[in-house]
Design goal:
single chain; mainly beta; disordered C terminus; six-stranded antiparallel β-sheet; 11 strands
Length: about 190
């Protein structure tokens, strides 16, 4: 099995939907550092933090085994913000099943923590299309909610996506390489 590894997107935006509170500096979620996309409010619901253009170049004919999204996030006050939904998108359309964690949320802490959606074997209820995954319009979006009466700030430092796949032919060693290894192993 092959993997793209944890990859950051190339394009970020705060898009309407989810709620009414926008993300400030959404492009900060494209870089693995402590700068963050932020959203502030009390009893607030954020817009979608929309990340696309991951630059994947998975070989045509590969089999997608799973999609993992990781979000490193924190809150200015413990247990006030939580992720409501995470979903895969392409050109504004939802792909597969939304990860609705708002029903049993993990509250964000004051220390940056990674929240994981999907896995190496989770296809998100979608039949993956290689051309779609490789497209600059493919990505992920999340929105979060604040459950506090005081104004708190949610911070998303980075969002990664990892695609686990099997290359065409199962990644078998090419015949020319196999022959070279045969002769090398059988030298006198």
């Amino acid at each position: 099995m092959a993997s793209t590894g944890d990859t950051v997107g190339g394009t970020a935006a705060s898009t309407t939907g989810g709620g009414d509170t926008h993300w400030t500096n959404p492009s900060n979620a494209l870089v693995d550092n402590t700068n963050a996309a932020t959203c502030t409010g009390n009893f607030a619901i954020s817009h979608w933090l929309h990340i696309t253009n991951f630059g994947f170049s998975i070989t045509a004919g590969s089999t997608i085994n799973g999609i993992t999204v990781k979000v490193r996030r924190k809150c200015s006050s413990t247990n006030d913000w939580f992720t409501q939904e995470c979903r895969l998108v392409n050109s504004g359309s939802i792909l597969g099943t939304t990860k609705n964690v708002g029903l049993s949320p993990t509250n964000w802490t004051t220390t940056a923590t990674i929240e994981t959606f999907g896995s190496t074997s989770d296809l998100w209820g979608w039949t993956p299309v290689i051309a779609t995954i490789n497209s600059s319009t493919f990505g992920v979006q999340i929105y979060a909610e604040d459950g506090s009466t005081s104004s708190e700030t949610a911070s998303v430092e980075v969002i990664w996506m990892n695609i686990d796949y099997t290359a065409p032919g199962g990644g078998a060693v090419s015949s020319s390489k196999s022959m070279m290894m045969f002769f090398k192993d059988n030298q006198v």
